[in-house]
Design a protein that fits this description.
By secondary structure, the protein is of the alpha+beta class. The protein is built from 11 helices and 13 strands. α2 packs parallel to α3. The N and C termini lie far apart (53 Å). InterPro entries: PurM-like_C_dom, PurM-like_C_sf, PurM-like_N, PurM-like_N_sf, SelD_I, SPS/SelD. Homodimer. It catalyses: hydrogenselenide + ATP + H2O = selenophosphate + AMP + phosphate + 2 H(+).
Length: 349
Amino acid sequence: MPTDTIPRLTSLSHGGGCGCKIAPGVLSELLARFVPQRSDPNLLVGTETADDAAVYRLNDQQALIATTDFFMPIVDNPFDFGRIAATNALSDIYAMGGKPIMALAIVGMPINVLPHDVIAEILRGGESVCHDAGIMIAGGHSIDSVEPIYGLAAMGLVHPDFIKRNADARAGDVLILGKPLGVGILSAALKKNRLDEAGYAAMLAATTKLNRPGADLGALPGVHAITDVTGFGLLGHALEMARGAGLTAKLRLSDLPWIPGVRALAAEGVVTGASGRNWASYGDAIRLGPKVGDAERALLTDPQTSGGLLVACAPEAAAQVMDIFAAGGFADAAVIGEMAVGDPVVQVG
């Protein structure tokens, strides 16, 4: 196929990255109709709190973490798409406090639309990330689909005592975010041909950085809860943490880390449709201060593909958490708020 006739990957999908997620409100309605058939005492983490992965106890020393994540292209470079999707999938393992051990590839491709070497580059990108994580892609499943889809079913291990759920934050906990925000804004700019080389490099650096610190954070007694910020935006995932703990999550707008350039783009109206869908789903549980305008709201609800870990820890553990992030090269990690006694809502001041 001539190069000039190969379609842009992002042109083949109606949404990209974690912006493809079903809106939180719709997902909650669907899951409400799901009734587990039986209970199992070894299932330590299931669907109860919309956590990042399922966890099953194998023995007194080991629990299996299982998760799956896949989406349509957020970028046009096939190798980069594979890297981003694989990094995002493995993040759920780290968010539970564990380490990945293997993965299976999930592949859906329009075989008669994309050249086979382009599809091979997507697979190679995913394999490169798994290699960096020290695991193998041991198999998978593929289908011929209308839109290109790639991701992983990933498995990991964690000591049962080190599992970090998203629902176990405590009043007084400090909230720390590992990566800067704004991936969805940059993806919208890319689709509109408004993203320069520096912006693309910044987006790629954020989305392909493995959340390895999660495994070390899981072993810290002072760390009470972890989740990763993905398709529901910072507000959506902070709200899941607040609801799980029955507490108020208080965020400070001035302390949030941003990828360079995203605030200006948001002010110009370069946002994703998923941001509006997110707000429509959970906006009634958000309390915004007077400094939060339309652009800031779009940033706070911006879907993050392969976003950072959101950590709730005791104040005395905050310095150690920040040291672990720093040692892993997460220079933008920041203390962004705290958990407080109150209604299960998110406040932004």
